[in-house]
């Protein structure tokens, strides 16, 4: 090592750049968009020193190869290619962690976000000493483009619910387009849930102090190439994120979701019972049996869709799973009645007896179905898991993960 480099720190020893901004672009099957977004960013950020980081989850359409060929021509383009992993939030987290830039923007790679507002966002972040500037579709100058009424409604609902955990008055907390200071990100990164699509809600909910947030409006564009990956799983992921933040990580999120599904099952049970017994005058035992089986079946499918979305049973295993779920829950119901009955006989209050029986059967149902029903091999495991899994297999759904 040369003498003059030995005592000097790395920043003094090496020529270094003043990196103004890093732009993190998560990609999944965006091959036809990456060259265009790169060109548009270069035009929008002319005059700034910036780098672009693509985080690709091994897209089958060859997005990563396309990014590599762009990077050969431009050293300001980098690629993180993740194998066997999926998830928009976790991709953003890894992209932000990979840059030394003090300010980092995150946006979609599909040209739906208007890159031309980035310099304005950067000026706002610096000028107003903010932690984060959110590009929003609802603020002044912003618009939802020609979104369907259903999506506008869902977006509004998600916004209201997110206030519960973010404690922030944001017009568009579901936005996937924002610019932040890396120092703020490092404050929250270890508390992030990391699953799903809603990294912004995750960061705001994880901060231990009020976050200094600003907003810049823009018009959300329509997609030209490729398809949106937002589907029913994304809603499930969002539910998990909210519960994780609301319970402060105290209860396993999977158990909370399982119990919520169970509570819904109770309503289904009552609705069926009143239909069969009260309206159709079927015998009570027969009505109750049909109602219970209907509720259990509904619960099985909901759990398979949401609670165990990362271990979803498919094909022939669905029937086998349903059978084992019926068995587990029938025993749970029997234990509930037996235990609460004997508590009542030994002098406990009726509500205490009922509560104890219910908690016991919920824990039983959860443990047994977790151990047996959703431990079965899934058909075509790799293909089944790939589009929906935001988490690594086997991770506890409660802990922070990246
Ligand atoms: N690496 C990685 N892994 N990238 C992903 C994944 C994934 O699992 N899923 C999606 N992406 C990338 C897409 O390639 C795209 O660049 C970006 O994330 C957004 O995905 P879209 O599938 O296009 O999302 P959208 O347009 O439906 O949803 C947008 O609007 C939502 C609000 O309505 C996104 O900006 C969301 O973040 C935002 O919440
Ligand atoms: Mn999109």
Oligomer: single chain
Largest sheet: 7 strands, mixed
Instruction: Return the string of H and E elements.
Output: HHEHEHEHEHEHEHHEHHHHHH
CATH class of the largest domain: Alpha Beta
Task: List the uncertain runs.
Answer: 1-5, 379-402
**Unique bound compounds:** guanosine-5'-diphosphate-alpha-D-mannose, manganese (II) ion
β-strand amount: 5-15%
Give the distance, in angstroms, between the N- and C-terminal Cα atoms.
37 Å
Indicate the percent of residues in helices: 40-55%
**Overall outline:** elongated
Structural class given helices, strands, pairing?
A: alpha/beta
What is the gyration radius calculated from CA atoms? 25 Å
Q: Whole-number average pLDDT?
A: 85
Set down the secondary structure blueprint.
Elements: H1 3-6, H2 10-13, E1 21-27, H3 31-44, E2 50-56, H4 63-73, E3 77-81, H5 88-97, E4 103-106, H6 118-127, E5 132-136, H7 149-166, E6 178-181, H8 182-188, H9 199-206, E7 213-217, H10 232-246, H11 253-279, H12 284-307, H13 317-345, H14 350-371, H15 381-385
Parallel strand pairs: 1-2, 1-4, 2-3, 5-7
Antiparallel strand pairs: 4-6, 5-6
The structure holds guanosine-5'-diphosphate-alpha-D-mannose and manganese (II) ion (MN).
């Amino acid at each position: 090592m040369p003498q003059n480099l030995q005592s000097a720190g790395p920043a003094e020893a090496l020529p270094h750049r003043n990196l103004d901004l890093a732009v993190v672009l998560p990609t999944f099957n965006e091959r036809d968009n990456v060259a265009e977004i790169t060109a548009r960013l270069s035009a929008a950020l002319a005059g700034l020193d910036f780098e672009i980081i693509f985080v690709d989850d091994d897209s089958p359409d060859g997005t990563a190869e396309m990014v590599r060929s762009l990077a050969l021509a431009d050293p300001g383009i980098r690629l993180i290619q993740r194998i066997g992993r999926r998830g928009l939030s976790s991709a953003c987290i890894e992209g932000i962690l990979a840059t030394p830039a003090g300010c980092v923007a995150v946006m979609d790679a599909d040209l739906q976000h208007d890159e031309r507002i980035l310099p304005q966002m950067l000026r706002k972040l610096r000028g107003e000493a903010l932690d984060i500037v959110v590009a929003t579709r609802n603020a002044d100058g912003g618009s939802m483009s020609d979104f369907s009424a259903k999506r506008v409604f869902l977006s509004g609902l998600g916004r209201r619910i997110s206030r519960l955990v973010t404690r922030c008055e944001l017009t568009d907390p579901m936005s996937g387009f924002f610019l932040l200071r890396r120092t703020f990100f490092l404050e929250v990164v270890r508390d992030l849930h990391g699953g799903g699509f809603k990294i912004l809600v995750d960061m705001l909910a994880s901060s231990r102090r009020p976050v200094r947030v600003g907003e810049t409006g823009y018009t959300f564009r329509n997609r030209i190439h490729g398809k949106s990956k937002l589907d029913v799983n994304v809603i499930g992921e969002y539910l998990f994120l909210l519960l994780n933040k609301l319970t402060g990580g105290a209860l396993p999120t999977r158990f909370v979701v399982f119990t919520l599904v169970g509570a819904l099952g109770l309503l289904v049970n009552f609705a069926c019972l009143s239909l069969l017994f009260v309206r159709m005058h079927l015998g009570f035992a027969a009505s109750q049996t049909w109602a219970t089986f209907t509720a259990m079946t509904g619960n099985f499918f909901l759990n398979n869709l949401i609670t165990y979305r990362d271990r979803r049973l498919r094909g022939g295993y669905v029937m086998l799973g349903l059978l084992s779920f019926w068995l587990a829950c029938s025993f749970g119901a029997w234990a509930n009645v037996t235990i609460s009955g004997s508590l009542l006989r030994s002098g406990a209050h009726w509500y205490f007896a009922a509560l104890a029986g219910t908690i016991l059967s919920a824990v039983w149902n959860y443990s047994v179905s977790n151990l047996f029903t959703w431990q079965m091999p899934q058909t075509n495991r790799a293909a089944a898991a790939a589009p929906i899994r935001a988490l690594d297999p086997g991770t506890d759904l409660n802990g922070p993960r990246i």
